[in-house]
Prior knowledge:
By secondary structure, this protein is an alpha+beta fold.
Amino acid sequence: xxxxxxxxxxxxxxxxxxxxxxxxxxxxxxxxxxxxxxxxxxxxxxxxxxxxxxxxxxxxxxxxxxxxxxxxxxxxxxxxxxxxxxxxxxxxxxxxxxxxxxxxxxxxxxxxxxxxxxxxxxxxxxxxxxxxxxxxxxxxxxxxxxxxxxxxxxxxxxxxxxxxxxxxxxxxxxxxxxxxxxxxxxxxxxxxxxxxxxxxxxxxxxxxxxxxxxxxxxxxxxxxxxxxxxxxxxxxxxxxxxxxxxxxxxxxxxxxxxxxxxxxxxxxxxxxxxxxxxxxxxxxxxxxxxxxxxxxxxxxxxxxxxxxxxxxxxxxxxxxxxxxxxxxxxxxxxxxxxxxxxxxxxxxxxxxxxxxxxxxxxxxxxxxxxxxxxxxxxxxxxxxxxxxxxxxxxxxxxxxxxxxxxxxxxxxxxx
Length: 415
């Protein structure tokens, strides 16, 4: 009983937290491409005509800047506000100047929806680029303004000012940490001085997980690895977020000589699901040189392997770890207790948005809805939050009509 109360309390907490997040969308009706800068940080790596930023705190006022790919169109600056639990959109469009035939671009409010209603309009903008809001510059791009940073370590410290704009390279120097070895045997030492802190890394990891394709996740993960100092644990989590086994292995090899604590690299082996991949990485580590700090002899039989949450499943992953039985039972009970279909839907989406499900758990939640359209709506919503995405065809058994099955199949193919 106590565990049940704790689970329900946790779900209530997650609901409150979720409600404080909001989304913003900026788009150009005529498809002029642009960069979106929020509070001085460029959000999209490539110019787009439609950019959606998620996971933003609200209520808050944000400074936004629109920089067009075509520099002749100018730069727009504005302040926008977000309310909790909403998705608000703005249109960037040309307008004739008063008393002149010349045009200038302006930002106009285009609409606002509660987050629970967003899925109904999810296909309104098929070219939409969805980005999890981040407060650190993208790899290869500077903050769009003035920043100040200071780093102090045992070897000394450095202070750097960055007064560049996006696309302008600036550099600064910092101290390094040197590992001293007692013999001349080849060994690997930490090749970066200060790894990402927990909050920054979580933001970067969410950027990877927000990508819905294997190629997208690989590209973002590689950029993070190239531009950041990572611990072995962080490398493991980054590799574990990738869909394809070969991508996991390639990234693990790339990061080995660049990570902060290679003596703990056995932690990364957990991201590889088969013993043959573990052995290949271990052979690479041996050839490159093991750190002398590590005294453990690594054998493939002793290496930890990734937990198998769905028996026998080796396909692509949509999320890292599905809800356990106790947590899911409490979640299912909360959805079941709702009197109205709309309340069931909002509760189910809130829970799913903060958790990871298995395909069978999605089937169980779909079965709680009375109407076919509700089942289909939730099945679409839950797809990217499902651990064993390769099994998602099993969700079709909840539908009575073939048209619903076909629509879900087309939706998955489009993802």
